[in-house]
Amino acid sequence: MKTILLSFLLILTLGGAQAQTRISGFIKTPKGKAVANASISIKNSYDGASSDSTGHFDFTTFEKGKQVLVFSALNFDKDSVQLVVEGKLMNLNLLMKDAINELETVTISAGTYTTGDAKKGAVLGSIDIATLAGSRADVIAAMQTLPGAQAAGSESGLFVRGGTAAETKTYFDGMLVKSPFNATVPDQASRGRLSPFLFKGTSFSSGGYSAQYGQALSSALVLESTDLPDKTTTGITLLSVGGGVDQNIRYKNSALILGGYYYNLAPAYSVFKQQQNNFIKAPEQGGGSIQYKAKTSNSGMFKFYAAYGVAQLSLNSPNINVPSSPSYFSNANNNIYVNSTYKAYLNASWKLEAGISYNRDQDQGLMVQNNYKRTDKLLEGRATLTHYYGRLSNVKFGAETFNTGRAESLNNLGRSYTDQLSAAFAESDIFLSSKVVTRIGLRTEYSSYLNRYNVAPRLSLGYKTGKDSQLSFAYGRFYQNPEDSYLILKALDYEQADHYILKYELNLADRLFRIEGYYKDYANLTKVKGNQLDNSGSGYARGFELFLKDKKTIPNGDFWISYSFLDSKRDFANYPMLATPAFAAKHTASLVAKQFIPAISSQIGATYVFASGRTYVNPNNPVYLGDKTKSTNNLSLSLSYLTHVFKQFSVLYVNASNVAGFKNIYGYQYSTDGQNRRAIQPSSRRDIIIGLIMTIGDDNFVR
Amino acid sequence: MKNLTKTLTLALIAFSLNSFAQTATEKFQMGMKKGLEMLGSAKGTDGFNSTANYFERVAQAEAKQWTPFYYAAYSNLIAGLTTTDKTIKDQYLDKALAEVDQADALSPDNSEIYALKGYVQYIKLSVDPQSRLAMMSASSASLAKAKALNPENPRPYFISGQNTFYTPEAFGGGKAKAKTLLETAAAKFAIFKPASAIEPNWGADQAKDLLAQIK
């Protein structure tokens, strides 16, 4: 009896440890390809195995009864099956489905160039923008090297595919920026106000963009601000034209960033002769900003940015009618910009984004002998809800309202207008598979000042033609209010453009190639006939563009080439007929190259931009805008030397524009009688900026 | 005889009960020991992938332990480092980062976990340095935190030293700078005692190897 009990207990004890089940089999794709390195395991146990190169796996388990067998592998969707484990050998054949690989998934990308550090399909990183030779850390100047954009000329802003600068709108975290440029000087392009260091990503769309963005006929420049800085650091920038300080203070889940700057171009202007204007007071500007960013939850982020800047200048600009009495011009500008946004996931499938922004830009001064003053204002509120469904698809709803307007006065005569523009939009990205996507969107707007509605449909398609290649199509209708300078005179109708875009893209790990063709049809453009304004203008633009970016061919270096062909005519503003505008050069090409040379710890950059001749009005030629300038060329070089100053990580850089000294002429201005003319040229033939950027509290070259 | 039987019976009962009672911790200790042996003998991407799979199994069965996530992350990191397949390199590293975060959730403010995080972030950077330069400061922030959390821990010094060793001088790296850090690490390794047999205790040999390359 005792012996029996003993044996029984022995069996029980040993038996508990012995009742194993052997599970083996193969793991494959539905097409029969072996999946290597997959993990196969019994849920909530240590038991399992990894598959070998033939997809075979084999393991034993002590678990019993109903169990869940989980299997996963990189590039495949995780899956599981129910098993009843009974001690008998189990032979299994498991099937795994290909996971949707983000890099190999079709995207909505017709017309869009995305930049950013961690973005899929990114064309340029933030560092590319900041260190681009000739750009002087100006976001807009960097965009001018991309296809679709005109080379910098004598006007401010981005001229895209035959569109005026007013047809390109800038968005800061989804909020429209009314005055993204510094005050404009006659016949001279001015810089963008927003520093590239504020942003982690930029999306430059030359057409066919999302229904989220309205009030832009040609192009949307969408800037996405950085998140929390990693550390508390101090950045000091010393330039040959001024300097700035910024302080990042990092708390556990939030950060405060304070910045200030002062620039004075007087010393530079005394060295580099100004060809256009005779400055009495060279541009001088200063300002400050404050940012607060807080992570409110795992997915929640609150951002606040406020900036204030002042600038002033005065000059005599040449007067072609009476050369002995140049035109006096002075300007004092102040600009307030506030942007506050919040985004968070409400649950696993709904995301909320909301924001409020305010922009006020004020210019005043003397034009010859007349006092002028101009104030532009924009207050915007916006909210968007996005619902994610399926594996990749989503649907978005949103609404925004803008209180916008201008007030201006000349001597003591004043006028103003205010518009309450409200918009609602809905858009859905529908993935029919990981190879086919369609985006359908609709946007509607109502302007109280125009007293009119509009409805704009948008459509995009993407089809993956191979692992690395994609074909895209986009169509969209775009509306925008006429420019402030017209609206202040009369409430007109919306201006309108239709875009048709076809693009092919080959996207390899270190190389990117794109070719894109488009047609753009303008209607309802504002026309000036004597003292009358109406919406009888029209026009078209068509062309194609090439882009090649290569990070592979040259070790430690990369380069990109863009080429744009543009054929555009329009009949708008004060044009007497359909004509090619000055801002529509037929051929534009740029080559941007960067090379890091470890031996001298330096990066050398070069940017070469070519543009064929621009049209200009010659009153002696019966054909309006019938004359063309010679083509323009510009070669800029930059050198960034990474070093330490007072043991702090520093970058010393030199940026030289138009090093070859090409004599570029953007157009001619004729005297009223047509007898005399003067060439409109860049503000100076050559230009050099020397700068030192120091980062205190960080031993890396990162800002 | 009767007594002996009784004693044996009782002993057996006690043994089987005892083995039940101890299962949880003992099983975990044994499981981790087995995993560390696998890790010690792992070769090539496939070997580290299998080790990662093993530690992931232990991690999902042991909801409160940070070490299985830590070693799963470490194994995925090495698998990502060694693989020549560019398309999955980032996936291994992303998995490693996610597992570091899971370990961090279970054991907040752990010097070892932040040290490993700094390691993974640096390797992420090195996959595409031109466009991921911003990860350099993320990595050094994690390592600084690891050093602050436990100044006795040699690994953050070793990893900083290793990162510095492979960073060009122009970007704040270089062998001379690495040497100081690696020497500090070596001194700390000499006196470091892990809290238990399954807690991190690696890096001393690698630090010596790197130092030998500098001299």
Describe it.
- The complex is a heterodimer of chains A (703) and B (215).
- By secondary structure, chain A is mainly beta.
- Chain A has 2 domains: 19-95, Sandwich (Immunoglobulin-like), CATH 2.60.40; 112-696, Maltoporin, Chain A.
- Chain A is built from 5 helices and 39 strands.
- In chain A, the strands form 6 sheets. Chain A has a 22-stranded antiparallel barrel. In chain A, strands 9-8-12-13-10-11 form a 6-stranded mixed sheet.
- In chain A, a hairpin with a 2-residue loop joins strand 20 (350-367) and strand 21.
- Chain A is globular, with a radius of gyration of 31 Å.
- Mean pLDDT of chain A is 88; it is low at 1-17.
- Chain B is mainly alpha-helical.
- In chain B, helix 1 (2-41) crosses helix 2, helix 4 (86-106) packs antiparallel against helix 5 and helix 7 packs parallel to helix 9 (204-214).
- The interface between A and B is large, with 48 and 44 residues.
